[in-house]
Amino acid sequence: MEPKRAGRRSPEAAERVRDAERTKGKLLEAAMTEFAANGYDGARVGEIAARAGVNKQLISYYFGGKEGLYRAMQREWLESERVQNGTEVPPQEVLRSYLRDNLRDPRIGRFVLWQALTEDMPEEESQEDADGELERMRARQANGEIAADLDPAAVQIALMGLTIAPVVFRRTAKRLFGVDIDDPEFETRYGDTLSRILARLAEETGHHPERNT
After folding, report:
1. Would you state the pLDDT for residue 213?
2. Taking CA 129 as the corner, what is the angle to CA 151 and CA 27, rounded to the nearest 5 degrees?
3. Could you report how far apart the first and last alpha carbons of the chain are, in Å?
4. Which of 44, 48, 88, 156 is the most buried (most CB within 10 A)?
5. How far apart are CA 133 and CA 153, in angstroms?
6. CB 137 within 8 A of CB 146
7. CA quadruple 65, 69, 71, 75: dihedral sign
8. Which regions of the chain are under pLDDT 50?
9. What is the distance of C-alpha 94 from the center of its chain?
10. How far apart (Å, rounded) are the C-alpha atoms in residues 158 and 197?
11. Are the CB atoms for 47 and 35 separated by under 8 Å?
């Protein structure tokens, strides 16, 4: 009998791993919908499990409960942002990417509003994470993408607000633009203006990020 090679999973074990990852993915997706709709306190693990089509005991098994699931969802966001917001990515591309995400998934805006309105929600983002974002903004400033006389922390907050504003003020945006925010025309018009605003932030250095693409 040939000995089993170390380090190789059997087909059954590999399939179990894939099933577990699929289940966790379904739970994270369902959690986003539930937390965005009802906030952390109003979210129910039974509803999340029902949305995912799995037994609610799996939330405890994979995440340790509602708080663990909430934190896991936030960690996924943070990891995605580190890739999406790397200094090697042109700033206007980062801005358009965030805008696209917010327009195509309104749950993000609702989730952020719940975070703002609820003081005692679990918080996965650390001071180290915030410091990292600020360092990336300072690196862009040093590269001439942001004017030297601007406070990088203020620029960071302002740009975040610009990308989520259409979701927060959806009805007003529709009245102003004549189309809803899920219309491609809105994304193009609003996104083009954001790119031009970003270019203005670098004008004093003579560096125009929108011309780098």
Report:
1. 41
2. 130
3. 60
4. 48
5. 9
6. yes
7. positive
8. 1-2, 207-213
9. 12
10. 11
11. no
Which of these, 93, 119, 97, 122, lies nearest to 108 by C-alpha position? 97
CB 78 within 8 A of CB 124: yes
* Tokens read off for 105: 């998934």
Task: State pTM to two decimals.
Answer: 0.77
Tens digit of each residue's pLDDT (9 = 90 or more) over 11-31: 577 777 788 899 999 999 999
Count the neighbouring beta carbons within 10 Å of the beta carbon of residue 57. Answer: 10
SS (H, E, C) the chain: CCCCCCCCCCHHHHHHHHHHHHHHHHHHHHHHHHHHHHHHHHCCHHHHHHHHCCCCHHHHHHHCCHHHHHHHHHHHHHHHHHHHCCCCCCHHHHHHHHHHHHHHCCHHHHHHHHHHHCCCCCCCCCHHHHHHHHHHHHHHHHCCCCCCCCCHHHHHHHHHHHHHHHHHCHHHHHHHHCCCCCCHHHHHHHHHHHHHHHHHCCHHHCCCHHHCC
Exposed, middle or buried by CB within 10 Å (0-12, 13-18, 19+), for 209? Answer: buried
Q: What is the CA radius of gyration of the chain?
A: 21
What token pair was written down for 37?
């709709």
